[in-house]
């Protein structure tokens, strides 16, 4: 597909009709987004000869792990969901089981104790977990798609040997970018790094840090050279017990309450040279690239959430609740809503899996990821909201999972790029493509 | 070196236990197309037990080590799914006995004869199999196999323990009002029941490892067996819908109700 477009482009400059044609069907071109993505192209293979398959098709390994994760989530996490939400804490036993199942090192190579699976496998796992508990899902998502990916991609051999075995077998990781005064404007971060004789010293604070209570490894973005602006941003690895590092506050939240979100303080935190991740001054690139693909993970969390909320309500209206002498799911007014909701979920999932496959194929996926995350979070909000209504009083009480899914869905429009930021990304790329 | 266990674990791909089975349009059986399938739950128990026997052997908690665990399943093109699951749980290798899906499952006697062939060719000394498959619920294969081989059998095991290097095996199973403990010597056939263990979930790294384990395709003929049928399914129907019962106030009410119905 990409090669086809590339081949057509020079032609379009000389032949007016072809140019017209290419403008008339802009949806068929692949938007170029090199400026936003320096993701190495893993496969340069030409995909044009392949027979397209349904986008929902999973490989044998992916579908087997989907089955296993689904079963594990239902049987092991399911009974704890309500209690963890009420207590606003993640059960340490769940974290331990996630490591045991290999869910914390999906893409980490086998030699470092991971499963050595592909990106879409991680997406499948995140989605399956979110059907049961979006809090557990986001923990696995952040750990895999942000932390593990950052170290696998930007760490050197020494960093791989030091951190990957821990991350795949027992230590949770956090990705620390946001600050009190820098969220969507991520590069306005204020945390400072200074060079010392044999390492670095960090000062500042971070906010909205997912997994912080459970984590032992923190990837921290700090500015090493503020005069260079965002080009001074550098990524460091900080371990929990480093002097000067502290968790200042654990947030109380509307949703995903079992997932911890904290404020972190760095007060003269001294780390060795080897804790520099990648190169100095490259942190902003790392952050952009990782968040671009991390978004697909959040999108999967949202489709999983939507599916979980939908299934929970569908079972209730089609099996349990009768009014006026029939199951409430028999009323046409209900049926149309349920069908509409499922169609939206299917559409969102198609965006998510398409973005994941494009990333794996080494194609540009930035716009696809943004569209997937935007739409999936919108669908999750709508479907989980409707699901509460379909279930009536049973949806409103803090007993089942309906109201929890609704509360959990709200975060999808906020973290890893707000909906407005996604729209901005999509619009910028489109404008570039359509500007003469 | 003492004798080692060479375990055969036959497994079956069945409709997932959580799915409500529906009768097909022709009333000849249960609808299987487009329905989620997974490994027969009793077979998961046997795979798990085989893997635990190996772990106990390695940790020297059992007098016999496990040399090899062979998983086997007969069925159509989707059968390798459950064999991969068995290998992801810990089986070392697998045989897929190709039986055309259109023919349905072979009858228990055919399966037992096939298993006898495998036992003889592969020098198996312990067969661990589910007490029944949840689709046919026939519960005969293990017993038939033991009969064909002339081996001791212990059915519905809730505990399996290897007692010594000579291959004495103690199997506990639940009976009405208590438990019964059986003792036999290898080679033997054991069928598994629900309380034997809690099957593990295949971990992601093990799913990847399972891809590299050998899975061989075989036919019934390789073991000198023909898929002959002695049984004919005449008709399959849904059970009649349950009619609501009545409530009685107390014991006297119950007694008078029973009298009224002529039960007392």
From TrEMBL, chain A:
Any coiled-coil regions, as ranges: none
- Reaction catalyzed: 2-methylpropanoyl-CoA + oxidized [electron-transfer flavoprotein] + H(+) = 2-methylpropenoyl-CoA + reduced [electron-transfer flavoprotein]; hexanoyl-CoA + oxidized [electron-transfer flavoprotein] + H(+) = (2E)-hexenoyl-CoA + reduced [electron-transfer flavoprotein]; (2S)-2-methylbutanoyl-CoA + oxidized [electron-transfer flavoprotein] + H(+) = (2E)-2-methylbut-2-enoyl-CoA + reduced [electron-transfer flavoprotein]; valproyl-CoA + oxidized [electron-transfer flavoprotein] + H(+) = (2E)-2-propylpent-2-enoyl-CoA + reduced [electron-transfer flavoprotein]
Q: Could you say which protein family the record assigns here?
A: Belongs to the acyl-CoA dehydrogenase family.
Q: How does it assemble?
A: Homotetramer.
Pathway annotation from the record: Amino-acid degradation; L-isoleucine degradation; Lipid metabolism; mitochondrial fatty acid beta-oxidation
> Which EC number(s) does the record attach to this protein?
1.3.8.5
Name this polypeptide is given: Short/branched chain specific acyl-CoA dehydrogenase, mitochondrial
Domain of life per record: Eukaryota
Task: Fetch the PANTHER family from UniProt.
Answer: ACYL-COA DEHYDROGENASE, SHORT_BRANCHED CHAIN SPECIFIC ACYL-COA DEHYDROGENASE, MITOCHONDRIAL
**Top EC class for this record:** oxidoreductase
UniProt entry keywords in alphabetical sequence: Acetylation, FAD, Fatty acid metabolism, Flavoprotein, Lipid metabolism, Mitochondrion, Oxidoreductase, Phosphoprotein, Transit peptide
A biological process (GO) annotation for this entry? Answer: fatty acid metabolic process
Span of domain Acyl-CoA dehydrogenase/oxidase N-terminal: 59-170
Q: Does the record carry Mitochondrion as a key word? A: yes
List the InterPro entries hit by this protein, alphabetically.
Answer: Acyl-CoA_DH_CS, Acyl-CoA_Oxase/DH_mid-dom, Acyl-CoA_Oxase/DH_mid-dom_sf, AcylCo_DH-like_C, AcylCo_DH/oxidase_C, AcylCoA_DH/ox_N, AcylCoA_DH/ox_N_sf, AcylCoA_DH/oxidase_NM_dom_sf
Name the needed cofactors. FAD
Q: Taking the first listed entry, what is the main subcellular location of this protein, grouped into a coarse class?
A: mitochondrion
Q: Where in the cell is it found?
A: Mitochondrion matrix
- Domain named Acyl-CoA dehydrogenase/oxidase C-terminal is located at 281-428
> Looking at the keywords, is Lipid metabolism present?
yes
What organism is the protein native to?
Answer: Penicillium argentinense
Q: Name one GO molecular function term.
A: flavin adenine dinucleotide binding
Residues in Acyl-CoA oxidase/dehydrogenase middle domain copies: 174-269
Q: Name one GO cellular component term.
A: mitochondrial matrix
TrEMBL record, chain B:
Q: Single Gene Ontology BP term?
A: amino acid catabolic process
Query: Where does it sit, as one GO cellular component term?
Result: mitochondrial matrix
Report TM segments.
none
Quaternary structure and partners: Heterodimer of an alpha and a beta subunit.
- Annotated Gene Ontology MF terms? electron transfer activity
* One protein family per Pfam: ETF
Name of the featured protein: Probable electron transfer flavoprotein subunit beta
Enumerate the subcellular locations listed in this protein's record, separating them with semicolons: Mitochondrion matrix
Domain (Electron transfer flavoprotein alpha/beta-subunit N-terminal): residue spans on this chain: 27-227
Q: Which family, according to UniProt?
A: Belongs to the ETF beta-subunit/FixA family.
Keyword list (alphabetical) reads: Electron transport, Mitochondrion, Transport
Any binding details for the cofactor? Binds 1 FAD per dimer. Binds 1 AMP per subunit.
Q: Report the function annotation for this chain.
A: The electron transfer flavoprotein serves as a specific electron acceptor for several dehydrogenases, including five acyl-CoA dehydrogenases, glutaryl-CoA and sarcosine dehydrogenase. It transfers the electrons to the main mitochondrial respiratory chain via ETF-ubiquinone oxidoreductase (ETF dehydrogenase).
Cofactor(s) the record lists? FAD; AMP
């Amino acid at each position: 597909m990409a090669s086809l477009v590339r081949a057509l482009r020079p032609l379009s400059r000389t032949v007016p009709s072809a140019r017209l044609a290419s403008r008339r069907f802009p949806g068929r071109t692949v938007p170029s987004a090199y400026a936003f993505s320096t993701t190495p192209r893993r496969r340069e293979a030409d995909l044009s000869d392949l027979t397209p398959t349904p986008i929902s098709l999973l490989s044998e390994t992916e579908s087997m792990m989907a089955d296993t994760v689904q079963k594990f989530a239902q049987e092991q996490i399911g009974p704890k969901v309500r209690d963890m939400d009420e207590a606003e804490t993640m059960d340490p036993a769940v974290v331990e089981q996630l490591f045991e199942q290999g869910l914390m090192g999906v893409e980490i190579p086998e030699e470092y104790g991971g499963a050595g699976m592909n990106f879409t496998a991680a997406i499948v796992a995140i989605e399956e977990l979110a059907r049961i508990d979006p809090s557990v899902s986001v923990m696995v998502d952040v750990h895999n798609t942000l932390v593990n990916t950052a170290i696998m991609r930007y760490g050197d051999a020494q960093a791989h040997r030091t951190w990957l075995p821990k991350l795949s077998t027992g230590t949770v990781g956090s990705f620390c970018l946001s600050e009190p005064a820098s969220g969507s404007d991520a590069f306005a971060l204020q945390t400072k790094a200074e060079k010392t004789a044999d390492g670095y010293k960090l000062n500042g604070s971070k906010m909205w840090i997912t997994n912080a209570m459970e984590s032992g490894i923190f990837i921290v973005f700090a500015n090493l050279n503020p005069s260079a602006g965002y080009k001074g941003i550098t990524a460091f690895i900080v371990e929990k017990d480093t002097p000067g590092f502290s968790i200042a506050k654990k947030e109380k939240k509307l949703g995903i309450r079992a997932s911890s979100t904290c404020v972190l303080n760095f007060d003269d935190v001294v780390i060795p040279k080897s804790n520099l991740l990648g190169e100095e001054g490259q942190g902003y690139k790392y952050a952009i690239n990782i968040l671009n693909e991390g978004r697909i993970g959040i999108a999967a969390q949202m489709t999983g959430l939507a599916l979980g909320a939908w299934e929970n309500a569908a079972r209730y209206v089609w099996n349990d609740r009768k009014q006026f002498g029939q199951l409430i799911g028999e009323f046409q007014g209900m049926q149309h809503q349920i069908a509409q909701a499922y169609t939206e979920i299917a559409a969102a999932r198609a965006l998510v899996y398409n973005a994941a496959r494009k990333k794996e194929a080494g194609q540009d996926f930035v716009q696809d990821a943004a569209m997937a995350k935007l739409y999936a979070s919108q669908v999750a909000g709508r479907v989980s909201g409707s699901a509460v209504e379909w279930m009536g009083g049973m949806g409103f009480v803090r007993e089942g999972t309906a109201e929890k899914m609704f509360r959990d869905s709200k975060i999808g429009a906020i973290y890893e790029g707000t909906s407005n930021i996604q729209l901005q990304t999509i619009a910028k790329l489109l404008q570039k493509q359509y500007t003469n | 070196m003492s004798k080692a266990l060479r375990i055969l674990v036959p497994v079956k791909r069945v409709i997932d236990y959580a799915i409500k089975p529906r009768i097909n349009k022709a009333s000849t059986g249960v609808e299987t197309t487009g329905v989620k399938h997974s490994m027969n739950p009793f077979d998961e128990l046997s795979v798990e037990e085989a893997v635990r026997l190996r772990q106990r052997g390695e940790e020297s908690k059992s007098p016999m080590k496990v040399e090899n665990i062979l998983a086997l399943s007969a069925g159509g093109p989707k059968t390798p799914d459950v064999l991969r699951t068995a290998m992801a749980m810990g089986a070392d290798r697998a045989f897929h006995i190709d039986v055309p899906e259109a023919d349905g499952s072979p009858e228990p006697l055919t399966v037992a004869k096939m298993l006898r062939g495998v036992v003889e060719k592969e020098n198996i000394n312990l067969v661990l199999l589910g007490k029944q498959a949840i689709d046919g619920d026939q519960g005969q294969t293990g017993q038939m196999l033991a009969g064909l081989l002339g081996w001791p059998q212990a059915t519905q095991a809730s505990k399996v323990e290897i007692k010594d290097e000579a291959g004495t095996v103690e199997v506990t199973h639940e009976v009405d009002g208590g438990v019964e403990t059986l003792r036999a010597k290898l080679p033997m056939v054991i069928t598994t029941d629900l309380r034997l263990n809690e099957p593990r979930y295949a971990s992601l790294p093990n799913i990847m490892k399972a891809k590299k384990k050998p899975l061989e395709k075989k036919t019934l003929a390789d073991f000198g067996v023909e898929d002959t049928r002695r049984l004919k399914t005449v008709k399959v129907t849904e059970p009649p819908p349950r009619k609501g019962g009545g409530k009685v106030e107390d014991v006297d009410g119950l007694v008078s109700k029973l009298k009224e119905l002529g039960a007392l």
